Protein backbone atom coordinates (compact mmCIF):
# COMPACT_ATOMS: atom_id res chain seq x y z
CA UNK A 1 0.00 0.00 0.00
CA UNK A 2 2.97 2.35 0.38
CA UNK A 3 3.26 2.48 -3.43
CA UNK A 4 -0.43 3.47 -3.64
CA UNK A 5 0.05 6.44 -1.31
CA UNK A 6 3.16 7.60 -3.16
CA UNK A 7 1.36 7.26 -6.50
CA UNK A 8 -1.60 9.19 -5.11
CA UNK A 9 0.63 12.25 -4.68
CA UNK A 10 2.89 11.79 -7.69
CA UNK A 11 0.15 11.19 -10.28
CA UNK A 12 -1.33 14.73 -10.25
CA UNK A 13 2.19 16.18 -10.07
CA UNK A 14 3.15 14.25 -13.19
CA UNK A 15 -0.12 15.27 -14.85
CA UNK A 16 0.56 18.92 -14.06
CA UNK A 17 4.04 18.66 -15.58
CA UNK A 18 2.62 17.06 -18.74
CA UNK A 19 0.35 20.04 -19.35
CA UNK A 20 3.51 22.06 -20.00
CA UNK A 21 4.52 19.83 -22.92
CA UNK A 22 4.06 21.80 -26.17
CA UNK A 23 1.61 20.32 -28.62
CA UNK A 24 0.48 17.52 -26.33
CA UNK A 25 -3.20 18.42 -26.75
CA UNK A 26 -2.99 19.62 -30.35
CA UNK A 27 -2.34 22.92 -32.11
CA UNK A 28 -5.87 24.27 -32.46
CA UNK A 29 -6.75 26.26 -29.29
CA UNK A 30 -10.37 25.16 -28.83
CA UNK A 31 -9.95 21.39 -29.35
CA UNK A 32 -6.70 21.50 -27.35
CA UNK A 33 -8.52 23.16 -24.48
CA UNK A 34 -11.24 20.51 -24.48
CA UNK A 35 -8.66 17.73 -24.49
CA UNK A 36 -6.79 19.38 -21.61
CA UNK A 37 -9.96 19.52 -19.51
CA UNK A 38 -10.70 15.86 -20.25
CA UNK A 39 -7.10 15.05 -19.35
CA UNK A 40 -7.60 16.74 -15.98
CA UNK A 41 -10.81 14.79 -15.38
CA UNK A 42 -9.10 11.49 -16.22
CA UNK A 43 -6.06 12.17 -13.99
CA UNK A 44 -8.16 13.30 -11.02
CA UNK A 45 -10.47 10.33 -11.59
CA UNK A 46 -7.53 7.92 -11.48
CA UNK A 47 -6.30 9.68 -8.35
CA UNK A 48 -9.70 9.24 -6.73
CA UNK A 49 -9.54 5.56 -7.63
CA UNK A 50 -6.12 5.30 -5.93
CA UNK A 51 -7.55 7.03 -2.84
CA UNK A 52 -10.43 4.54 -2.74
CA UNK A 53 -7.96 1.63 -3.09
CA UNK A 54 -5.98 3.12 -0.20
CA UNK A 55 -9.14 3.39 1.89
CA UNK A 56 -10.27 -0.16 1.09
CA UNK A 57 -6.84 -1.55 1.98
CA UNK A 58 -6.59 0.47 5.20
CA UNK A 59 -6.60 -1.64 8.36
CA UNK A 60 -9.44 -0.08 10.36
CA UNK A 61 -8.60 -2.23 13.38
CA UNK A 62 -5.28 -0.40 13.76
CA UNK A 63 -6.21 3.11 12.66
CA UNK A 64 -3.84 4.70 15.19
CA UNK A 65 -0.88 3.11 13.41
CA UNK A 66 0.71 4.76 10.40
CA UNK A 67 0.06 2.65 7.31
CA UNK A 68 1.28 2.73 3.69
CA UNK A 69 4.54 4.17 5.02
CA UNK A 70 7.39 5.40 2.82
CA UNK A 71 10.48 6.57 4.69
CA UNK A 72 13.52 7.54 2.61
CA UNK A 73 16.42 9.86 3.45
CA UNK A 74 16.08 13.10 1.48
CA UNK A 75 18.41 15.74 2.99
CA UNK A 76 20.63 13.77 5.42
CA UNK A 77 22.61 16.85 6.44
CA UNK A 78 19.68 18.23 8.42
CA UNK A 79 17.80 14.97 8.97
CA UNK A 80 14.93 15.65 6.55
CA UNK A 81 13.30 12.49 5.20
CA UNK A 82 10.78 11.72 2.48
CA UNK A 83 8.35 10.30 5.02
CA UNK A 84 4.76 9.51 4.03
CA UNK A 85 2.01 7.68 5.88
CA UNK A 86 -1.71 7.61 6.59
CA UNK A 87 -3.75 6.93 9.73
CA UNK A 88 -7.35 7.35 10.84
CA UNK A 89 -6.95 11.13 11.03
CA UNK A 90 -5.53 11.75 7.56
CA UNK A 91 -7.34 9.07 5.54
CA UNK A 92 -10.77 10.82 5.48
CA UNK A 93 -9.11 14.08 4.43
CA UNK A 94 -7.20 12.37 1.63
CA UNK A 95 -10.43 10.84 0.34
CA UNK A 96 -12.26 14.18 0.64
CA UNK A 97 -9.49 15.97 -1.29
CA UNK A 98 -9.41 13.42 -4.11
CA UNK A 99 -13.21 13.44 -4.38
CA UNK A 100 -13.65 17.22 -4.45
CA UNK A 101 -10.83 17.71 -6.96
CA UNK A 102 -12.35 15.11 -9.30
CA UNK A 103 -15.81 16.70 -9.01
CA UNK A 104 -14.29 20.11 -9.77
CA UNK A 105 -12.58 18.66 -12.85
CA UNK A 106 -15.90 17.16 -14.01
CA UNK A 107 -17.69 20.45 -13.40
CA UNK A 108 -15.03 22.35 -15.36
CA UNK A 109 -15.74 20.32 -18.48
CA UNK A 110 -18.87 22.43 -18.96
CA UNK A 111 -18.48 25.49 -16.74
CA UNK A 112 -14.90 26.73 -17.04
CA UNK A 113 -14.89 30.56 -17.05
CA UNK A 114 -13.73 31.99 -20.34
CA UNK A 115 -13.57 35.31 -22.15
CA UNK A 116 -11.02 37.94 -23.24
CA UNK A 117 -7.82 37.70 -21.25
CA UNK A 118 -8.68 34.32 -19.69
CA UNK A 119 -5.81 31.82 -19.93
CA UNK A 120 -6.18 28.54 -21.77
CA UNK A 121 -7.90 25.49 -20.26
CA UNK A 122 -4.52 23.77 -20.39
CA UNK A 123 -3.14 26.28 -17.86
CA UNK A 124 -6.22 25.74 -15.68
CA UNK A 125 -5.74 21.97 -15.75
CA UNK A 126 -2.07 22.24 -14.84
CA UNK A 127 -2.84 24.52 -11.89
CA UNK A 128 -5.68 22.31 -10.68
CA UNK A 129 -3.44 19.22 -10.69
CA UNK A 130 -0.62 21.08 -8.94
CA UNK A 131 -3.11 22.27 -6.33
CA UNK A 132 -4.24 18.68 -5.77
CA UNK A 133 -0.62 17.59 -5.29
CA UNK A 134 -0.09 20.13 -2.53
CA UNK A 135 -3.37 19.36 -0.79
CA UNK A 136 -2.80 15.61 -0.78
CA UNK A 137 0.81 16.04 0.26
CA UNK A 138 -0.16 18.13 3.29
CA UNK A 139 -2.30 15.30 4.67
CA UNK A 140 0.19 12.53 3.85
CA UNK A 141 3.67 13.80 4.80
CA UNK A 142 5.19 13.03 8.20
CA UNK A 143 8.18 15.38 8.16
CA UNK A 144 7.92 18.99 9.35
CA UNK A 145 9.86 20.44 6.41
CA UNK A 146 7.87 18.44 3.88
CA UNK A 147 4.69 19.51 5.66
CA UNK A 148 5.68 23.14 5.20
CA UNK A 149 6.54 22.63 1.52
CA UNK A 150 3.25 20.89 0.78
CA UNK A 151 1.41 23.53 2.82
CA UNK A 152 2.93 26.23 0.60
CA UNK A 153 2.59 24.48 -2.77
CA UNK A 154 -1.15 25.18 -2.79
CA UNK A 155 -0.75 28.96 -2.58
CA UNK A 156 0.50 29.71 -6.08
CA UNK A 157 -2.08 27.66 -8.04
CA UNK A 158 -4.92 28.97 -5.88
CA UNK A 159 -3.64 32.53 -6.37
CA UNK A 160 -3.75 32.16 -10.15
CA UNK A 161 -7.12 30.39 -10.12
CA UNK A 162 -8.58 33.41 -8.33
CA UNK A 163 -6.59 36.09 -10.19
CA UNK A 164 -7.09 34.75 -13.74
CA UNK A 165 -10.40 32.86 -13.67
CA UNK A 166 -12.19 34.80 -10.94
CA UNK A 167 -14.91 37.44 -11.10
CA UNK A 168 -15.08 41.08 -10.05
CA UNK A 169 -12.22 42.38 -7.88
CA UNK A 170 -10.30 39.17 -8.48
CA UNK A 171 -6.90 40.91 -8.54
CA UNK A 172 -7.10 42.55 -5.10
CA UNK A 173 -8.76 39.43 -3.63
CA UNK A 174 -6.00 37.15 -4.92
CA UNK A 175 -3.29 39.53 -3.70
CA UNK A 176 -4.84 39.70 -0.25
CA UNK A 177 -5.07 35.92 -0.13
CA UNK A 178 -1.42 35.40 -1.00
CA UNK A 179 -0.09 38.14 1.31
CA UNK A 180 -2.03 36.94 4.36
CA UNK A 181 -1.13 33.31 3.89
CA UNK A 182 2.53 33.95 3.05
CA UNK A 183 2.98 36.15 6.13
CA UNK A 184 1.41 33.49 8.33
CA UNK A 185 3.53 30.80 6.68
CA UNK A 186 6.77 32.73 7.27
CA UNK A 187 6.06 32.83 11.00
CA UNK A 188 4.97 29.18 10.93
CA UNK A 189 8.28 28.19 9.33
CA UNK A 190 10.16 29.75 12.26
CA UNK A 191 8.05 27.69 14.66
CA UNK A 192 8.63 24.48 12.70
CA UNK A 193 12.39 25.09 12.67
CA UNK A 194 12.37 25.85 16.41
CA UNK A 195 10.46 22.64 17.10
CA UNK A 196 12.71 20.51 14.89
CA UNK A 197 16.01 21.93 16.06
CA UNK A 198 15.16 21.93 19.77
CA UNK A 199 13.84 18.36 19.65
CA UNK A 200 16.59 17.11 17.33
CA UNK A 201 14.21 15.69 14.72
CA UNK A 202 11.76 16.82 12.06
CA UNK A 203 9.98 13.46 12.08
CA UNK A 204 6.35 14.02 13.13
CA UNK A 205 5.86 10.43 14.31
CA UNK A 206 8.89 10.66 16.61
CA UNK A 207 7.68 13.99 17.98
CA UNK A 208 4.22 12.53 18.60
CA UNK A 209 5.73 9.54 20.42
CA UNK A 210 7.81 11.80 22.68
CA UNK A 211 4.75 13.93 23.48
CA UNK A 212 6.75 17.02 24.36
CA UNK A 213 9.54 15.26 26.25
CA UNK A 214 12.81 17.19 26.07
CA UNK A 215 11.15 20.53 25.27
CA UNK A 216 10.88 23.19 27.96
CA UNK A 217 7.50 24.73 28.65
CA UNK A 218 8.66 28.09 27.28
CA UNK A 219 9.80 26.49 24.06
CA UNK A 220 6.49 24.70 23.68
CA UNK A 221 4.57 27.95 24.13
CA UNK A 222 6.72 29.68 21.49
CA UNK A 223 6.24 26.74 19.11
CA UNK A 224 2.46 26.84 19.53
CA UNK A 225 2.38 30.63 19.07
CA UNK A 226 4.48 30.62 15.91
CA UNK A 227 3.08 27.53 14.20
CA UNK A 228 -0.43 28.24 15.44
CA UNK A 229 -0.43 31.71 13.88
CA UNK A 230 0.30 30.33 10.43
CA UNK A 231 -2.30 27.61 10.86
CA UNK A 232 -4.85 30.11 12.20
CA UNK A 233 -4.58 32.25 9.06
CA UNK A 234 -5.30 29.25 6.85
CA UNK A 235 -8.05 27.86 9.17
CA UNK A 236 -9.30 30.78 9.13
CA UNK A 237 -9.56 31.86 12.76
CA UNK A 238 -11.03 35.21 13.74
CA UNK A 239 -9.47 37.86 13.49
CA UNK A 240 -7.15 36.46 10.77
CA UNK A 241 -10.08 35.63 8.49
CA UNK A 242 -10.49 38.87 6.54
CA UNK A 243 -8.85 37.52 3.36
CA UNK A 244 -11.47 34.77 3.07
CA UNK A 245 -14.71 36.60 2.09
CA UNK A 246 -13.00 38.52 -0.72
CA UNK A 247 -11.25 35.39 -2.00
CA UNK A 248 -14.48 33.37 -2.05
CA UNK A 249 -16.51 36.14 -3.66
CA UNK A 250 -13.98 36.58 -6.47
CA UNK A 251 -12.98 32.94 -7.00
CA UNK A 252 -14.51 30.77 -9.72
CA UNK A 253 -16.87 28.04 -8.52
CA UNK A 254 -14.22 25.31 -8.47
CA UNK A 255 -11.78 27.60 -6.66
CA UNK A 256 -14.37 28.29 -3.96
CA UNK A 257 -15.17 24.59 -3.59
CA UNK A 258 -11.52 23.62 -3.05
CA UNK A 259 -10.73 26.66 -0.93
CA UNK A 260 -13.58 25.93 1.49
CA UNK A 261 -13.61 22.17 1.12
CA UNK A 262 -9.90 21.45 1.52
CA UNK A 263 -7.58 24.44 2.04
CA UNK A 264 -9.25 25.57 5.26
CA UNK A 265 -8.88 22.03 6.61
CA UNK A 266 -5.12 22.19 6.20
CA UNK A 267 -4.89 24.72 9.02
CA UNK A 268 -7.00 22.79 11.53
CA UNK A 269 -5.28 19.51 10.52
CA UNK A 270 -1.94 21.09 11.43
CA UNK A 271 -3.18 21.82 14.95
CA UNK A 272 -4.11 18.16 15.41
CA UNK A 273 -1.18 16.54 13.61
CA UNK A 274 1.67 18.82 14.71
CA UNK A 275 0.85 20.86 17.80
CA UNK A 276 -1.35 18.60 19.94
CA UNK A 277 1.16 15.72 20.18
CA UNK A 278 4.44 17.67 19.82
CA UNK A 279 3.84 20.57 22.21
CA UNK A 280 1.11 19.46 24.65
CA UNK A 281 2.29 21.80 27.39
CA UNK A 282 2.14 24.82 25.12
CA UNK A 283 -1.29 23.80 23.87
CA UNK A 284 -2.57 23.41 27.44
CA UNK A 285 -1.40 26.95 28.24
CA UNK A 286 -2.88 28.57 25.15
CA UNK A 287 -5.98 26.39 24.68
CA UNK A 288 -8.35 28.78 26.53
CA UNK A 289 -7.27 31.64 24.26
CA UNK A 290 -7.76 29.45 21.19
CA UNK A 291 -11.24 28.55 22.46
CA UNK A 292 -12.08 32.22 23.03
CA UNK A 293 -11.01 33.17 19.50
CA UNK A 294 -12.95 30.18 18.14
CA UNK A 295 -16.16 31.25 19.87
CA UNK A 296 -15.63 34.84 18.72
CA UNK A 297 -15.39 33.50 15.17
CA UNK A 298 -18.60 31.49 15.59
CA UNK A 299 -20.55 34.55 16.72
CA UNK A 300 -18.86 36.97 14.32
CA UNK A 301 -19.45 34.75 11.29
CA UNK A 302 -23.11 34.23 12.21
CA UNK A 303 -23.77 37.93 12.84
CA UNK A 304 -22.04 38.90 9.60
CA UNK A 305 -24.27 36.44 7.73
CA UNK A 306 -27.39 37.82 9.40
CA UNK A 307 -26.35 41.30 8.27
CA UNK A 308 -25.79 40.11 4.69
CA UNK A 309 -29.11 38.27 4.42
CA UNK A 310 -31.12 41.27 5.66
CA UNK A 311 -33.39 42.70 2.90
CA UNK A 312 -31.85 45.77 1.31
CA UNK A 313 -28.30 44.96 2.43
CA UNK A 314 -27.21 43.91 -1.06
CA UNK A 315 -25.48 40.84 0.36
CA UNK A 316 -23.67 38.43 -1.93
CA UNK A 317 -24.59 34.75 -1.50
CA UNK A 318 -21.01 33.56 -2.02
CA UNK A 319 -19.80 36.09 0.54
CA UNK A 320 -22.41 34.87 3.00
CA UNK A 321 -21.22 31.26 2.69
CA UNK A 322 -17.64 32.47 3.17
CA UNK A 323 -18.56 34.15 6.45
CA UNK A 324 -20.49 31.04 7.45
CA UNK A 325 -17.24 29.10 7.00
CA UNK A 326 -15.60 31.34 9.59
CA UNK A 327 -18.31 30.29 12.03
CA UNK A 328 -18.23 26.60 11.17
CA UNK A 329 -14.45 26.42 11.40
CA UNK A 330 -14.79 28.07 14.79
CA UNK A 331 -16.50 24.88 15.99
CA UNK A 332 -13.54 22.89 14.69
CA UNK A 333 -11.08 25.08 16.59
CA UNK A 334 -13.24 24.93 19.72
CA UNK A 335 -13.19 21.13 19.62
CA UNK A 336 -9.40 21.14 19.31
CA UNK A 337 -9.10 23.64 22.17
CA UNK A 338 -10.88 21.30 24.59
CA UNK A 339 -7.85 18.96 24.41
CA UNK A 340 -10.20 16.00 24.85
CA UNK A 341 -10.75 12.99 22.63
CA UNK A 342 -14.43 13.92 22.35
CA UNK A 343 -13.71 17.47 21.23
CA UNK A 344 -10.89 16.58 18.82
CA UNK A 345 -12.94 13.78 17.26
CA UNK A 346 -15.76 16.27 16.83
CA UNK A 347 -13.36 18.72 15.22
CA UNK A 348 -12.15 16.12 12.73
CA UNK A 349 -15.71 15.06 11.93
CA UNK A 350 -16.75 18.70 11.47
CA UNK A 351 -13.76 19.18 9.15
CA UNK A 352 -14.98 16.49 6.78
CA UNK A 353 -18.65 17.48 7.12
CA UNK A 354 -17.87 21.11 6.34
CA UNK A 355 -15.89 20.08 3.27
CA UNK A 356 -18.84 18.06 1.94
CA UNK A 357 -21.58 20.56 2.79
CA UNK A 358 -19.78 23.76 1.84
CA UNK A 359 -18.41 22.18 -1.32
CA UNK A 360 -22.00 21.39 -2.32
CA UNK A 361 -23.15 24.89 -1.35
CA UNK A 362 -20.56 26.58 -3.55
CA UNK A 363 -21.43 24.31 -6.47
CA UNK A 364 -25.10 25.26 -6.05
CA UNK A 365 -24.45 28.97 -5.68
CA UNK A 366 -22.29 28.84 -8.80
CA UNK A 367 -25.20 27.21 -10.64
CA UNK A 368 -27.60 29.90 -9.42
CA UNK A 369 -25.19 32.62 -10.53
CA UNK A 370 -24.78 30.99 -13.95
CA UNK A 371 -28.55 30.97 -14.46
CA UNK A 372 -29.42 34.41 -13.07
CA UNK A 373 -26.18 36.30 -13.69
CA UNK A 374 -25.89 37.40 -10.07
CA UNK A 375 -25.37 36.20 -6.51
CA UNK A 376 -26.92 39.35 -5.03
CA UNK A 377 -29.45 38.23 -2.44
CA UNK A 378 -31.80 41.16 -3.02
CA UNK A 379 -31.93 40.51 -6.76
CA UNK A 380 -32.36 36.76 -6.24
CA UNK A 381 -35.16 37.43 -3.76
CA UNK A 382 -36.96 39.84 -6.10
CA UNK A 383 -36.65 42.67 -3.57
CA UNK A 384 -33.97 44.75 -5.29
CA UNK A 385 -34.19 47.56 -7.80
CA UNK A 386 -34.62 47.37 -11.52
CA UNK A 387 -36.30 45.04 -13.98
CA UNK A 388 -34.27 42.01 -12.96
CA UNK A 389 -35.45 42.35 -9.38
CA UNK A 390 -39.15 42.14 -10.27
CA UNK A 391 -38.99 38.41 -10.78
CA UNK A 392 -36.40 37.07 -8.37
CA UNK A 393 -35.06 33.55 -8.48
CA UNK A 394 -37.97 31.69 -6.83
CA UNK A 395 -36.09 28.42 -7.23
CA UNK A 396 -38.90 26.22 -5.96
CA UNK A 397 -41.23 27.44 -8.70
CA UNK A 398 -38.79 27.70 -11.60
CA UNK A 399 -36.02 25.17 -10.98
CA UNK A 400 -37.42 22.91 -8.25
CA UNK A 401 -34.56 20.41 -8.22
CA UNK A 402 -31.96 23.16 -7.83
CA UNK A 403 -34.08 24.84 -5.16
CA UNK A 404 -34.53 21.58 -3.27
CA UNK A 405 -30.79 20.89 -3.34
CA UNK A 406 -30.02 24.40 -2.06
CA UNK A 407 -32.48 23.93 0.79
CA UNK A 408 -30.97 20.51 1.54
CA UNK A 409 -27.44 21.94 1.68
CA UNK A 410 -28.62 24.82 3.87
CA UNK A 411 -30.26 22.59 6.49
CA UNK A 412 -27.21 20.31 6.42
CA UNK A 413 -25.02 23.34 7.08
CA UNK A 414 -27.14 24.51 10.01
CA UNK A 415 -26.68 21.10 11.66
CA UNK A 416 -29.96 19.29 11.15
CA UNK A 417 -29.82 15.91 12.97
CA UNK A 418 -29.42 13.06 10.54
CA UNK A 419 -27.11 15.02 8.24
CA UNK A 420 -23.34 15.46 8.33
CA UNK A 421 -23.26 18.93 9.87
CA UNK A 422 -24.80 17.79 13.16
CA UNK A 423 -22.28 15.47 14.79
CA UNK A 424 -19.07 17.47 14.65
CA UNK A 425 -20.51 20.61 16.22
CA UNK A 426 -22.36 18.58 18.86
CA UNK A 427 -19.18 16.73 19.89
CA UNK A 428 -17.19 19.98 19.97
CA UNK A 429 -19.71 21.39 22.46
CA UNK A 430 -19.70 18.13 24.45
CA UNK A 431 -15.93 18.47 24.69
CA UNK A 432 -16.40 21.98 26.07
CA UNK A 433 -18.78 20.65 28.69
CA UNK A 434 -15.97 18.47 30.11
CA UNK A 435 -12.64 19.98 28.98
CA UNK A 436 -9.28 18.37 29.69
CA UNK A 437 -7.87 18.38 33.20
CA UNK A 438 -6.21 21.67 34.05
CA UNK A 439 -8.54 23.77 31.92
CA UNK A 440 -11.14 26.03 33.53
CA UNK A 441 -14.50 24.29 33.30
CA UNK A 442 -16.54 27.46 34.05
CA UNK A 443 -14.80 29.25 31.17
CA UNK A 444 -15.47 26.36 28.80
CA UNK A 445 -19.10 26.20 29.89
CA UNK A 446 -19.39 29.83 28.82
CA UNK A 447 -17.72 28.95 25.51
CA UNK A 448 -20.19 26.10 25.06
CA UNK A 449 -23.18 28.35 25.74
CA UNK A 450 -21.94 30.97 23.27
CA UNK A 451 -21.29 28.29 20.65
CA UNK A 452 -24.85 27.05 21.20
CA UNK A 453 -26.09 30.59 20.56
CA UNK A 454 -24.07 30.50 17.36
CA UNK A 455 -26.01 27.44 16.18
CA UNK A 456 -29.28 29.34 16.64
CA UNK A 457 -27.96 32.30 14.67
CA UNK A 458 -26.75 29.94 11.96
CA UNK A 459 -30.22 28.49 11.61
CA UNK A 460 -31.61 32.02 11.39
CA UNK A 461 -29.53 33.18 8.44
CA UNK A 462 -29.59 29.92 6.49
CA UNK A 463 -33.37 29.58 6.75
CA UNK A 464 -33.62 33.21 5.64
CA UNK A 465 -31.56 32.35 2.57
CA UNK A 466 -33.89 29.46 1.77
CA UNK A 467 -36.98 31.63 2.24
CA UNK A 468 -35.70 34.51 0.12
CA UNK A 469 -33.95 32.65 -2.69
CA UNK A 470 -36.00 29.47 -2.97
CA UNK A 471 -39.43 30.96 -2.27
CA UNK A 472 -38.89 34.51 -3.52
CA UNK A 473 -40.34 37.77 -2.30
CA UNK A 474 -44.11 37.43 -1.64
CA UNK A 475 -44.55 41.10 -2.64
CA UNK A 476 -43.68 40.12 -6.22
CA UNK A 477 -47.17 39.17 -7.38
CA UNK A 478 -46.27 37.87 -10.82
CA UNK A 479 -43.22 35.99 -9.68
CA UNK A 480 -43.70 32.84 -11.74
CA UNK A 481 -45.80 34.21 -14.55
CA UNK A 482 -43.50 36.87 -15.97
CA UNK A 483 -39.97 35.55 -15.59
CA UNK A 484 -38.41 32.97 -17.91
CA UNK A 485 -37.62 29.59 -16.45
CA UNK A 486 -33.92 28.71 -16.61
CA UNK A 487 -32.71 25.13 -17.02
CA UNK A 488 -33.00 22.93 -13.95
CA UNK A 489 -30.20 20.61 -12.79
CA UNK A 490 -28.19 19.35 -15.77
CA UNK A 491 -26.63 15.90 -16.14
CA UNK A 492 -23.06 17.06 -15.55
CA UNK A 493 -24.20 18.99 -12.48
CA UNK A 494 -25.99 15.95 -11.11
CA UNK A 495 -22.79 13.90 -11.64
CA UNK A 496 -20.78 16.47 -9.65
CA UNK A 497 -23.29 16.94 -6.82
CA UNK A 498 -24.84 13.51 -6.24
CA UNK A 499 -21.77 12.03 -4.45
CA UNK A 500 -21.74 14.96 -2.02
CA UNK A 501 -25.45 14.60 -1.27
CA UNK A 502 -25.05 10.87 -0.65
CA UNK A 503 -22.05 11.32 1.63
CA UNK A 504 -23.75 14.09 3.62
CA UNK A 505 -26.63 11.73 4.36
CA UNK A 506 -24.33 8.76 5.02
CA UNK A 507 -22.12 10.70 7.45
CA UNK A 508 -25.21 11.98 9.26
CA UNK A 509 -26.82 8.57 9.63
CA UNK A 510 -23.62 6.56 10.21
CA UNK A 511 -21.14 8.79 12.08
CA UNK A 512 -19.25 5.73 13.35
CA UNK A 513 -17.76 5.34 9.88
CA UNK A 514 -15.60 8.41 10.56
CA UNK A 515 -15.42 8.38 14.34
CA UNK A 516 -14.33 4.75 14.38
CA UNK A 517 -11.36 5.72 12.22
CA UNK A 518 -10.32 8.85 14.07
CA UNK A 519 -10.88 7.93 17.73
CA UNK A 520 -7.94 5.50 18.22
CA UNK A 521 -5.57 7.86 16.42
CA UNK A 522 -6.77 10.87 18.43
CA UNK A 523 -6.39 8.97 21.70
CA UNK A 524 -2.81 8.10 20.75
CA UNK A 525 -1.97 11.69 19.79
CA UNK A 526 -3.30 12.97 23.10
CA UNK A 527 -0.97 10.63 24.95
CA UNK A 528 -3.42 7.80 25.59
CA UNK A 529 -2.99 4.15 24.75
Largest beta-sheet characterization: 2 strands, antiparallel
Instruction: Return the string of H and E elements.
Output: HHEEHHHHHHHHHHHHHHHHHHHH
Strand order of the largest sheet: 1-2
The portion of residues forming beta strands comes to under 5%
Task: Report the end-to-end length measured between terminal Cα atoms.
Answer: 25 Å
Topology:
Layout: H1 2-18, H2 29-57, E1 67-75, E2 80-86, H3 90-111, H4 121-140, H5 144-153, H6 155-165, H7 170-199, H8 204-210, H9 217-234, H10 243-250, H11 253-278, H12 280-309, H13 317-337, H14 341-372, H15 377-381, H16 395-398, H17 400-413, H18 420-433, H19 441-471, H20 479-482, H21 491-509, H22 512-525
Antiparallel strand pairs: 1-2
Descriptive tags:
529 residues, mainly alpha, 2 strands
Describe the structure.
- It is a single chain.
- 73% of the residues lie in helices and 3% in strands.
- With 529 residues, the protein is mainly alpha-helical.
- The chain has a domain at 284-529.
- Strands 1-2 form a two-stranded antiparallel sheet.
- A hairpin with a 4-residue loop joins strand 1 (67-75) and strand 2 (80-86).
- The longest helix has 32 residues, at 341-372.
- It is globular.
- Residues 384-390 and 477-481 have low confidence and may be disordered.
Amino acid sequence: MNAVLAALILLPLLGSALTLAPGLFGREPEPAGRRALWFGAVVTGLDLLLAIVLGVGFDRGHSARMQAVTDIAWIPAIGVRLHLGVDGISLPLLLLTALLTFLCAVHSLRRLPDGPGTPSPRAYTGLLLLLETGMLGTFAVLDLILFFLAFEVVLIPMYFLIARWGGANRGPAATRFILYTLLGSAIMLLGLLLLGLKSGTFDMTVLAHRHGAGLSHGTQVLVVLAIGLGLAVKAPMWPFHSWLPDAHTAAPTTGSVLLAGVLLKMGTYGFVRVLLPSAPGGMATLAPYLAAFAVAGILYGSLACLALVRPGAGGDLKRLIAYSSVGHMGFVLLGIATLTATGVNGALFANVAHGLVTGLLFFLVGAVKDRYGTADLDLLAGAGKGADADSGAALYGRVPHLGGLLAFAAVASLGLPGLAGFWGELLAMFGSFHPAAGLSRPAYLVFMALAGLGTLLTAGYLLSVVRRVCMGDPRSRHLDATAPRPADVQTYEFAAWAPLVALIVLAGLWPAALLGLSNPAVTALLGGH
